[in-house]
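ok so i was messing around last nite and threw this chain in just to see what happens. nothing serious, just curious
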Amino acid sequence: MRPGERADLAVLVVDDDFMVASIHAELVGDVDGFRVAGTAVNGQQALDMVADLKPDLLLLDVHLPDMNGIDVLRRLRQRGDDVDAIVVTAERDADFVKAALRGGAAQYLIKPFDLDELRTRIVRYARGRLGTGKADQQAVDAAFSVTPDSRGAAVPVAPPPPKGLSNESLDLVRAALSGGDELSATTCAEATGMARPTVRRYLEYLVECREARVRLKYGGGRPERLYQSMD
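result:
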């Protein structure tokens, strides 16, 4: 690399479906500030490639033929690998989401999803690095890159959560809303195991980012705020 050039963030794509892995790898390669370090088709190969390639980020499917993605994360943490992960899965169970986040997942994306959403999450990950003590030049460049969609238009990226809110807890709230039903802050708090006032802040943030909508349900007392995913 010549002086003055920046190093892109390296991404390892882990998915046993060759077609899906190819699509995800192509998308990652199109996002300015990122490059594909490689692809792995099972958990053991992912562990070996992380050791060899030292990627910054895993795009990690959960359902792998030899072990699930959560086990991959746990083994990486046990041996001290400093690599982040965006977990992609069709699994919607709240306990499963919590296990992924406890295992060190930076974000949790539920299938099926729009590829523009995956692109947004990747760029959001780079922005998140700026607030976690990992603010190097490659993170800055990736975070502030203009990311075009398939028509060449800029894809709007939501701002990072306000001070006091974390991406990990935000993904828990997103997962709770992903079923499509309207949820009150109380119901969402029960699903995520978080305090109601805290959940309310996350829900209002998602409304502000246009990831969720809110309506008032009128009854005998104060109107109840009900939240629903925009997906």
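not much to say yet. The longest strand covers residues 34-40.
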